[in-house]
Amino acid sequence: MPYKFKEIEVRFLEIDEKSLKRKLLDLGAKDYGKDLLKDDLYYHTDKEFDDNHKRFCRIRHAKSGMTFTYKHFQSHSATGTKEIEFEIEDEESLNAFLVEMGWERVRRNEVKLHKFVLDKVIFDFKIWPSVPPVVELEGESEEDLKSAAKKVGLDWNEVELRPPPVVLEKVYKIPIHDLKLFTFDKIE
C-alpha cells in the first residue's frame, strides 16, 4: 500500500507483541508473514543538504526483492515524512549513481519485520538489534491510524511520532549515526 510521496506513519514502543498480533488476527487482519530486512543507508556528503540526518537514501533487501527509498523527515508528526520509494533490480548501478550524486553509504541496518494489514492500515512489527518490539502503523490518513490503534487497544497518548533514528538515539541511547553496522550479528 504505497502512498504517493508521503509516509503517513506512527509507532508504538515496547508493545506486547504476542497479544497485539492475536488481537489483529481476531479482528480479521491478514498476516503477510515475517522477513529480515537488510538496509544500506546513504547520507549526503553536503552537510547543509543533509540537514543533520533529516534526509537519507536506502537500498533495502527483502525476500520480495530490492527497493530504493528517499526519505526526508520534515516534522515529528504522523504526516511529516516525505518518501519516494520504488523497486530496483540493478543495485550496482544505483550505488554508482548515488555516489556520483554526492551520497555515501554509511551504515548497514537489519530489522526483523512481521507485517499485518487490518482494513487499510499496515501494522509492521519491528525488532531492531538490542531494542524491545515496536509496532508501526502506516495508512492513508492520520484518522485511519487513530481508528486502527483504537480497534486494537493502543493508546494514542503513547504514540511515538519521532522517526526511528531519533527514537534509537533518544529513547534507547544507541548512537545510530556513529555506527557502520547495526545488525543482529554485529553493532559497531
UniProtKB/TrEMBL annotation:
InterPro entries: CYTH-like_dom_sf, CYTH_domain. Signal peptide: none annotated. Residues 5-170 form the CYTH domain. This is CYTH domain-containing protein. The lineage of its organism: Bacteria, Candidatus Doudnaibacteriota.
